[in-house]
Amino acid sequence: MRYRVPQLLQSRSRILTLLLILGLAVGIPFYAALWYAQYGPASPDLQKYLAHHYPFLSSSVSHVDAPTPILSLLASESPLLHPPPNPLPPPTCAPIKSLGQVEPSKLPPLLLSLHIFSNARFNAQFAKLRRNIIRRTILMGVPHMYRHLVEVKFIMGRSWDPAQETLHDREEKNSGDMIRLSMPDGDGERGKAAEWMRLVGGQRVAQWVVKCDDDVIPILPNLIPYLLTLDPTQPTILGSSFHNEPDKWPHFSKKMYGFSWGILRSVTEARMHDDEKHRFIEEGRYIGVMMNSLTSKPGHPPIAPGSIAKVPTRPVSPDPRTGLIWADVGRRISPWKDYWTVKASSALAWYGMENDQQYEETAMADIIREMHDAGRKYLWDVPDDLKYLACKP
């Protein structure tokens, strides 16, 4: 009897081995067929995968087949034809309200116009509380004498609830810092980025217009000096490709990105159809499509519709056709309390605060503490060559 137990175990082992072999014999061809169907040689997804993970294998996989771009942008003027003032002119130092009914485009130009996407539909009360926190904290990092160089606006759609719209209208009247957009789905993703860009491009001129979500803390003492290293007269998009998967179009994360003024003017003047503006594409990818649809720079032939066959999986900067500069800041825009989080002393923004306490009492406190530990105040150190822009409060 004692000899039967090893034999029984041995027979069970053989059965398990046979089942394993059978599973591999069936599974490997099956999943290989699925993989080939999805990533076969004719599929751009395989090319994307190889180009992203194994760029040394072949130069032929560094480009992928691209969809048709937003072609109507190709009929607009080059962003190079709409540079903002650089350097900025001496300020008037007059309060904006005292200027009366002046067209926004006639107001003194800004260094930075910061636009925060807020929500008008879901958790309306929570969104308002978050806006109030941002209003009292966002400019802490800018000296009072230079706050006129930075504008903060909240970008919102419309609510389907009349009672909520009444509250929003009252808040807009009291604060004066809200821009309302009209979109087919009220305040969803469809068309918000395009409507925003086209509207803002006809508003007050700024060297840089930066967008972020309301769970993002832009660290202005670091962001403004970084912007000053760039040339606002050149068509530039800034943002982060960190954590981005390779896509049919190069793009940046939607959490925070920005443009030099010429790009906004070019998009504003383009004749875009509603179906182009309201395409259901993730925001970051949609902006990538728009950037790759800009018209050619002067001296370069325009692209004929349908002639774009391949585009790089990662941005080429500057773009040889448009001259577009992709200013990729990488991990300097990073999630808060993550393994990859960059120290506040060098980060441009943190994001991912789930509630107001995390935003104001924890994350903001962490930023101020880390900058103090690095021997810095949470305050933009204005360079000497910009001190002529000071206005006494």
Chart the SSEs and their pairings.
Elements: H1 4-39, H2 44-53, E1 63-65, E2 110-117, H3 124-137, E3 150-156, H4 162-175, E4 178-180, H5 192-200, E5 206-213, E6 216-218, H6 220-228, E7 236-239, E8 256-260, H7 261-269, H8 274-277, H9 283-291, E9 310-312, E10 325-328, E11 333-335, E12 349-351, H10 356-373
Parallel strand pairs: 2-3, 2-5, 3-4, 7-10, 11-12
Antiparallel strand pairs: 1-9, 5-8, 6-12, 7-8
Helix pairs in contact: 5-7
What's the CATH C level? Alpha Beta
Question: What kind of assembly state do the chains in view correspond to?
Answer: single chain
**Dominant shape:** globular
Return the structural class.
alpha/beta
Strand order of the largest sheet: 4-3-2-5-8-7-10
Average pLDDT works out at 80
Number of E strands: 12
As a percent range, the share of strand residues is 5-15%
Domain count: the total is 1
Helical amount among residues, as a percent range?
A: 25-40%
Rounded to the nearest angstrom, the distance between the terminal CA atoms is: 98 Å
Low-confidence stretches: 34-67
Tally of helical runs? 10
Largest sheet: 7 strands, mixed
CATH architecture: Alpha-Beta Complex
Subcellular location: Golgi apparatus membrane
Protein name: Hexosyltransferase
Region (Disordered): 168-187
GO molecular function, one term: hexosyltransferase activity
Please give a handful of descriptors for the protein shown.
393 residues; Spore Coat Polysaccharide Biosynthesis Protein SpsA, Chain A; 3-stranded mixed sheet; 34% helix; hexosyltransferase activity
